[in-house]
Amino acid sequence: MKIGLGLPNQVRNVRPETIPQWAAKAEEAGFSTLGTVGRYAYPGVSDTVTLAAAAGATSTIGLFSHVMLAPVWPGELLAKELAGIDGVSGHRLSLGLGIGGRPDDFVVDGYGMSGRGKRFDHDLETYRSIWNGDPVGGGVNPAVPAGTRQIPLLFGGFSPAALGRMARVGEGYVGASMPASMVAPSFEAARAAWTEAGRSGQPRIVAIGYFALGAEDQGRANVKDYYSFLGEEMSNGSAAGVSGSPEAVREAVKEYEDLGADEFILIGTTDDIDEVSRAAEIVF
Q1: pTM of whole model > 0.90?
Q2: Four-point Cα dihedral 228, 95, 246, 277, nearest 10
Q3: What residue stretch is flagged as signal peptide (predicted)?
Q4: What is the DSSP letter of 105?
Q5: Domains in the chain with CATH codes
């Protein structure tokens, strides 16, 4: 199982200049992938900007969104942004996508919560068309350079619609940031949906989980704040799930490995750059 590192782009009031530093240090340490968490109505750094910054600061490590709230964007514009990030990175980008569930993230006129699933399905076709180099805007020009590829898509979510998208057009599934025992059923559901759709092989399974090694209390507080929209009980549960010791990190790695995950991404909960080396010393 590969081990990736989630950038702290959605830590409240993150210092943006630490993001490329995290990225470069994670690549040097040997992590497989750099990940981002997506949300817009929160004082962090957009996942598209974060992925672009990480692309510029590195040369070999994978880039991944886990997950990006795709329907908050006009599909044509997001497709072009992502093609650019993938291109400048040398085709290192994979996308974990979801439909979102917080009304305040839907800030663009005409792109609200209502109908977002249907809009997302249409946008997936738009992405493919744009990345294929089809003309846009009723003219003759494509939106992207020649050589643009079809970026690999993975999907998060628990609904039959989410699993159906994954099985039809995706390459894999992204689990929720919960303990392995709680995520296990969704992994099995993803594999079952894949088989039922007649896909060969197995979906790529990516697990994610938070860690806080240098300032455990602050890390837990940051996670609780991020999930406060869920209410006291759920946000406290999310904070309690943060791996706050070397032993807890090792146990999380083992549990996800036992579940057959292909990759486990440890997500930073503070922007302390030393968290990169602390995590690397434990997992490598």
Answers
A1: yes
A2: -110
A3: none
A4: G
A5: 2-283 (3.20.20.30)
